[in-house]
């Protein structure tokens, strides 16, 4: 991928990263962690334990999703720095620019991504 195109995607990925981090900080109440920002279950004796458990599970799921999204952005930035951004990790062909515009963290071409998802749906667990 040419340098000007890689630079464009690098800027887009940096903006995505900055926005996600700002969003996380806002949701977590500034610099404190999600656990610190979460309501203390002992503060409200009338709270339903199952509701507290569900809120804790939701917070954990959101944390995992946000971490995965940050990891994907960082991995794409590393591929740009290494000079192999836009190449499918499985087959090595160029990922179409339209796909990268739609999903700048894409690691695979559509065909290879489809095979990966089909394998995962069949119960196989190939490495990403």
Task: Write up this protein.
- The chain has 128 residues and is mostly helical.
- It has 5 helices and no strands.
- The protein has helices at 3-28, 34-37, 49-82, 97-102, 110-121.
- Helix 1 runs antiparallel to helix 3 (49-82).
- 11% of the residues are buried.
- The model has no long low-confidence stretch (mean pLDDT 82).
Helix content: 55-70%
Query: How many DSSP H or I helices?
Result: 5
**What integer is the average pLDDT?**
82
Beta-strand percent range: under 5%
Quick one: overall form?
Answer: flat
Secondary-structure-based class equals: mainly alpha
Number of strands: 0
Note the gap between the termini. 22 Å
**Major sheet characteristics:** none
Number of domains: 2
Low-confidence stretches: none
Specify Rg, calculated over alpha carbons: 19 Å
Order of helices and strands: HHHHH
């Amino acid at each position: 991928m040419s340098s000007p195109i890689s630079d464009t995607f690098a800027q887009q990925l940096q903006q995505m990263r900055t926005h996600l981090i700002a969003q996380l900080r806002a949701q977590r109440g500034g610099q404190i962690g999600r656990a610190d920002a979460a309501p203390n279950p002992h503060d409200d004796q009338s709270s339903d334990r199952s509701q507290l458990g569900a809120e804790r599970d939701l917070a954990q799921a959101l944390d995992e999703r946000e971490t995965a999204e940050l990891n994907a952005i960082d991995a794409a930035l590393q591929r740009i720095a290494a000079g192999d951004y836009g190449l499918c990790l499985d087959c090595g062909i160029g990922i179409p620019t339209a796909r990268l515009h739609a999903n700048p963290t894409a690691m695979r071409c559509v065909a290879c991504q489809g095979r990966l998802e089909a394998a995962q749906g069949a119960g196989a667990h190939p490495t990403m």
